[in-house]
Amino acid sequence: MKSQYNAEPGDLIKGKWTGHIWRIEREIGRGANGTVYLVTGEVGQAALKFADSASVASETNALTALERVRGTSPGPFFIEADDVEKEGVLYSFYIMEYIHGPMLHTFIKEKREEWAVILLIWLLNFLEPLHRSGSVMGDLKPENFIVAGKIVRAVDVGGITKFGRSVKEYTALYDRAAWQAGTRKAEPSYDLFGAAVLITALVQKQLVQTALGNKNELAGIVQSSRTLQLIAPVLLKAFNSEYDSAFLMKKELLLCFAKKDTGTIRRKKKQASFFSKKWVIAAGAFAAILLLFLLH
Amino acid sequence: MNTGTIKQLLLLTDGCSNTGEDPAMMAAFAKRRGITVNVIGIVDNGGSGAGLSEIEAIARAGGGESRIVQAASLSETVVNVTRQAMTGTIYSIINEELRGILNKDTQVEALPPATRREIAEKVEDISEEAALELLVLTDMSASMKMKLPAVKEALYDLSMTMQSRMGPSSFSLWTFPGKYSAAEEQIGWTMHAGRLADSFPQLVSGGITPTGPAIRQALSSFMEMDEYNEKSI
Prior knowledge:
A: six-stranded antiparallel beta sheet; 10 helices; 10 strands; B: globular
C-alpha cells in the first residue's frame, strides 16, 4: 500500500497538471481508501480527496456519471482531478463541490424519529434517477449522505456500481448479502433493501446491529417501533427484495403512510366528544398538512 | 478481446512461518508464473513485529496486496484485497504495455488525469469480465483456533461477491499444515464459490507453520489446472 498524504491545516496543495493551488482548512472525513479535506481555492470552498490514482480515476468517473443523471447533481459536482508532488512522491487527489449539511444520522438525532419516514422518501428520490441511469449506490451507510435542504445528496460515491456487476463497496450492516437476504449483485432491489435497513437502523440502531445476519429478526424490530410500524408493509417488502423500482416503493410508502394517518385521525374524531382532546385533532391535522407539504 | 485469466493466491495466516523454505521466495516464484500472491495477517492485538514484516515481504515478492487486520474486520478485508489485487494485476499489464509504447519509466500515473479516467473504466470492465482463478490458502496451525469462525464468515462473504461477478470464476481451498504434507487440498477447483465456506474445516491441525512449503504445494494446483486447460483445448 502506498503511503497517504498527510495534510495539515494551512498546507498549500499545488496541482501538477492545472497549477491550481488549494489551501487545506481542515479534515472532514477519513475512509478506507482516502481522506477528505475542506479546502479553499480560487473557486472558493471545495472538498479535496486524496486517494490512490486508480480510486481517484474510478471515483471521478462515478461523479461525472451522477452529474449526467439530472441538472442538480445528486452527488457533489466534480471540479477537477490532479496530482501533487511531495518529496519525490506523487499523490493523486480530486476536487469536488463541498456539500454543507448534517449526515443522515446526525440529522435524525436532532429530530423526532418520525423524520425517518421523510428521510426514506428523500432517499428514494435520490435513488430513483441513479437507477434510471443504470447504476446502484451500493454503500448505503448514513455517513455517505447529507441532508441539504429538502433533498438527500451523496458525499461518497465509492460504491456506485453499474447494474449487473458485483457491488464495489458496501458496509455489512446495510448489505443484502451480509443479511443472507440475497446476492451482492448491483440491481435496484439491492439498494432498496439497504435503504430499508438504513431507515430501520436510524430508529433502532442497537437492535439492528445485534440482529445482523439474521433477516427474520428485521420484521420484529420494525414492530418494536411506532414509527416503523406505520410503514411496516413497505419495509418488509423491501427486506424481501420485492421492489425493483424506487418509484414504486415511494408510491406504496406514501399510500401506506396516508392510510395510516387518516386512520388515526378518524379514531381521534370519535374521541372528539371528550372536549379536552380537541386540540389533538388540530395538532394531528396540522401534522398531516405539514407532512403532505414535506412529501410534496 | 481476449481478457485472459487472473490468477490469485490468497494467504490467510496469523504469524511467522517456522519451517521450510522462505515464503517470500515462493511468492516471487508464483509471481514469475503469473500468479499474484496476496496476504492477510490476522492478529489479536497489534501482533508480533516479525510476523508483520514477513506478511508484507510475501505480498511484495508476490506482486500482491497485504493487510494486517483483527479477526472482526476480516470479511471486508478479504473482499477488498481480492478486488484491488485484480485491478492491480490489470494495471501492471497496462503499465508494461505503456513502457513498450512510450518509454521505460512510463506508468499510468504519468498520464494526465482525464486519460487515467478512461483507463480506469476499461480496467473495471476487464476485472469484472475476466476469468478468475482464486486459491485460498489458510493457516490452520493451533494459534488460529479462535480465528477460524471469522475465516469461515469471510469466505462466505467473499463467495457472495464472487457469485455476483460477471466473468467466470473458479475457486480452490487449501489448508496447512497438512496431515501428511506441508499443505493439503480441501476443495479442488470448483465454479461454486459457496463451497469455500460450506466445506471449511473447523479443526486446527497442528503446531508447525510451514508457510513456504505450503505455498509451493498450493501452486502445483495452478499448474495442474493449466495442463487440464491445455488438454481440454
